[in-house]
Amino acid sequence: MNKTVMITGANAGIGKDTARQLALVKGTEKIYLACRNRTKAQAAKKFLEEKTGRYIFEIIIMDVSKPETVRDAVDRLAEPIDALIMNAGGTGKDPEKKTKDGVTNITASNLLGHVVLVDELLKAKKLKNVALFASSEAARGIKKMGMKRPDLKTSSVEEFASVFDGTAYGKKFDPMEVYGAVKYGGTLWMSSMARKYPEIKFISMSPGGTRGTEGFDDMPFLQRFMFKYIGMPIVMPLMGMSHSLEKGAKRFVEGINNDAFKSGVFYASKKNVLTGPLVDQSSIFQDLTNEVYQDNASEAIHRFIK
Fold first, then answer.
1. What whole-number distance in Å separates Cα of residue 217 and Cα of residue 211?
2. What local confidence, expressed as pLDDT, does residue 162 receive?
3. How many independent structural domains does the chain possess?
4. What is the residue range of 189's domain?
5. Which of 91, 247, 268, 297 has the fewest CB atoms within 10 Å, i.e. the most exposed one?
6. What CATH number did the domain enclosing 212 receive?
């Protein structure tokens, strides 16, 4: 039973609804809302308390795109957590720009900060049971949406590093393409961690095509408008490509609590859809089981951790 849970990006969208649903699960005693903005976090806490009638939410300030804030947050954590849900991410603002750590903003917010978070929690013996990484079907390609499978030539440490620092793309930096490649690298990292730490469950899981998420709010205006107000709510449901916020969040709730989900596995929708039953994605993309690729992705992202 996971009595204490931390959720990154918990003030809105999938993260907030995951917190709401978890509060209604018998046995949940504390939920840490890991957010970068205190005002938004306080608003989310108030909303969740009113919706659930439970006063088990605690704010912890953390910006996963800035590793130093992650380390500070772990230092301030008074007790170990049973489960971690790494939900923060999306394309973000200026996704191609580099941070002081040498990775692109899109890598920092989706992956680097979460790697630092897991490493610090393990080092401090503050993670007990399970870690869940919010991956995406984009990590294995979404043909219906024109999103190609990540096109790595060798899957070497150097190639993964070039994905993470953006040099693999040069001036042809397509945020959605890079998003898929970064999620792929993160998913491989999780599988590598599962082998290194067999006493803890490491799961990658996609929330699917979820309406109401704010992860893509920093897209260019026209692209954002088409995605949020036409594609996601109207066109995509008809194609089996989107479902409700509640269904997306429910995947995460079940992901940390259902023993049927196995460590080191990436669970997401069936081929060509973004909704419905969860399946092991290695049945769609065999490279996900390659242990050399897994370790290469892990080594590559750790190069940027100072």
1. 12
2. 98
3. 1
4. 4-302
5. 247
6. 3.40.50.720
